[in-house]
From TrEMBL:
GO terms for cellular component: adherens junction; catenin complex. Coiled coil: none annotated. PROSITE patterns: CADHERIN_1, CADHERIN_2. It comes from the Eukaryota. Keywords: Calcium, Cell adhesion, Cell junction, Cell membrane, Glycoprotein, Membrane, Metal-binding, Repeat, Signal, Transmembrane, Transmembrane helix. This is Cadherin 7. One of its GO terms (molecular function) is beta-catenin binding. It is found in: Cell junction, Adherens junction; Cell membrane. Residues 83-163, 164-272, 270-384, 385-489, 489-599 form the Cadherin domain.
Amino acid sequence: MGWCCSGVRRALALLVLLFVLRGKGCCCWGLNPNSGDEEKSLRSDPDSWEALHRHKRSWVWNQFFVLEEYTGNEPLYVGKLHSDVDKGDGKVKYVLSGEGATSIFTIDENTGDIHATKRLDREAQAYYTLQAQAIDRLTNLPVEPRSEFVVKVQDINDNEPKFLDGPYLAGVPEMSPLGTMVVQVAATDADDPTYGNSARVIYSIIHGQPYFSVEPKTGVIRTALPNMDRETRDQYVLVIQAKDMVGQMGGLSGTTSVTVTLTDVNDNPPRFSYQYTVLESLPVQSVVARIKAADADIGSNAEMDYRIMDGDGPGMFNITTDEDTQEGVIILQKPLDFETRSGFALRIEATNRNIDSNFLSLGPFSDTTSVKVAVEDVNEPPLFSTQLSKMNVSEDAKVGTSIGRVSAHDPDTSNSGIRYSIDRNTDLERFFNVDALSGIISTAKPLDREANSVHNLTILAIEILDPNQVGKGIALISVRDVNDNAPVFAIDYETLLCENSMPGQVIQTISAVDKDEPLSGHRFHFALDASVAGNMNFTLRDNKDNTASILTKRGGFRRREQPVYRLPVLITDNGIPALSSTNTLSVRVCDCDSDGVALSCGAVAYTATGLSTGALLAILGCIITLLVMVLLIVTMRRRRKQPLILEEERDIRENIVRYDDEGGGEEDTEAFDMVTLRNLNIIRDPTVRRDVTPDTPTFYHYTSASRPPYRSLPDNVVFREFIWERLKDADVDPTAPPYDSLQTYAFEGSGSVAESLSSLESLSTDSDQNYDYLSNWGPRFKKLADLYGNSDSGNVLS
């Protein structure tokens, strides 16, 4: 079973090896399940070499390479498996087994192409051991022995160096000579150290110069300055960087901190000194410390004066004497800044104020002491490099145009990152945005200089590590003007023209205004619109001083002929590009006195008696409204509802039909049986419709022969059964109308104690009541007495 490797380099190497082997007469024999027996026969019978069948075989590659972290959309091609037994007729099938087979690596059983279907991580698993075999597709028997090969994951630089033992703490004696070793740091890179430079690390120092240095290859940190004094500064924080790819561009890096403490050596004689710690935010003129020189005298002999002989930061401190306690009061004169200077050393002298010359030999009457003032760091808000940033932008700038940039930094040693934002109280309409990381200010909306020519923005710089620390800066943005407004009349002119005006008379002088402010100033040009340039009434004269005069061309204007003239005037500015607008000047013709004072203007008023036009319109509107209301009322009264069906199709049961004949009254019992009409207990046999199969549900299932009378049913069922029966009758009635109709039945039910009060049913029902008293009521009740009084005789109609 032979292997074909992907890649031009591997193909060339394969060809070279094949040529070398061929020149030496070397070949590879195909393997099969009986290879062991063949070897035995070769050893026992040397002459059998000619009888053996030799299988040609390609060079066996036992290692493939695949690139890790492959991000392509298609499976990654690894290599190709091919057996010399495979003649391309599809009888040979290739099978892959081992680590990651089918889950990571797949093989095309026909062609032998191997692909990786998942992203591989060399740091998780560097290689995979797989077995491949070619088997007969029909018999599933191997045509060659199983071959084992390795797929090695080829490394890429995807891991940055890491300091597993960081951060580091180290110490070195003060006053150590130059080059003294402090500590050695080591970073490890998970990438393959045998392939490329992905794991070759170079060390450098980012923070901590010029006090210390680091060897690039070994990571050994050494002192870079001699004689470092612990009393001046006892601790240093270094930042060491490890970068792979031998430090070249594109390599990944990691950092760690190394805290170096200077250990003390005996390099100072004993001194009496004071040491104080103050906050850097301490206000000026605040008391820093109080010191006192001891004096055995009392009273005026113990009075002292203090002075600062020398020290760090001249002018930073002053010392005065507290007259009550004779203490030296050290006062802060200038603001402190921890980042600029973290400590001060002062030498202070105390001298007796009143010295007795008789005891000069006992002197000197003064003493000196050292005072150390340590400045304690406080978290300060970010500081802008320029507190006031002036910028300008054109008013026609597109949205997103960059205007300028603000910059701020954290003055503290933490050197926190800064995020920028705009105080929206200074930009309520959100005309501008600021990039949170870069501080670049850009436009967010179209600008209009005429609405707001200057924007005063407050920019906020917020520390990322401590959002409570906020610095403020000012960005003053001036909007440059562009010619985007056309000139218009300066005012709404009211031009009056006397009827007795002469030709060539100036009747109006006009001027214009423009919201724009060009650097060279305004220059307006006036002219009549082309539509009226040749009119016979008026003309325009440009005075070349941003004004123009309107003159008459003729005289003899009359209000009765035309009371108002409308004159379109074209005004053009001198901008680039020039803008213009047409403004209409209304000229009213007036009746004037001899001095040219207008007496009355506009159309001649005619005096009319009677109602005004408004009143007439109101009356007419009322009349029209009344007419509409009357028409609506008449239409609604005449409107009749159309019948649902034709007159001849109406069911007589829904109407009252009048007959002009009289019945026989109660004595007429031959026309029809009144008892049957109202007796609900008589089972009806309705005529069944031939085209409908009735299927009426009932609450009680029983046959018609065994159906109990209504009065024997439960009270809550009587009405239901009655309704269902009547519904059944209506459904099967062939004479029923084909539309919904209302059926009315005079059924009182059986729940009443007095039962039915009707006399129609009383003849066919048994009653225990005695009606003999009716015969005592006189001749008017004789008929009732005959019907009901004789209860012993049974049914009267029988």
